[in-house]
User: Fold this.
Amino acid sequence: MPWLCLAIPSPAQAAEASAHLLRVFNTDPVEQNRLDALAQLEKGTAIDSKQITRSICDTSPAIRAAMIRMGTPLVAQDPDLESKLLALAHDPQPKVQMQLLKSLPAFPSPKAAETLHKLLQKGLQSPDKALRALAESIYQTAQNGTSAQPPANPSKR
Assistant:
């Protein structure tokens, strides 16, 4: 079956493809090209905590949100990464705040729980409909006793 051999890249080809995708992700001026490269990289292991640390200050809110999503499983192995991702709680973009609301419950520290609590309060008062809806959903889940403590003043919307 010669076609099967052509369908499976060699380790060298896979490494070369990953290196190319990383170059596109790190240097391409077109956001969509960078997001497409990132989607391919996310399927493998080419993104590590160092790359995430370099990219969390990206000009693209979509890329910052992706770095939170991709960095969440690495937090347990890299405690410095947690503080860098928690700093994104001050990001003004709803897309970034929404990803933090989704990811923070997986962080292992009390600081992350405190940040989640503050971000949830902020989200409940947000003018952004999607962020507010997510915060309300998380709040309702907390009310049902299946998550962290709800914010102190949920009625201030």
Notes: Residues 11-27 form the longest helix (17 residues). The mean pLDDT is 85.
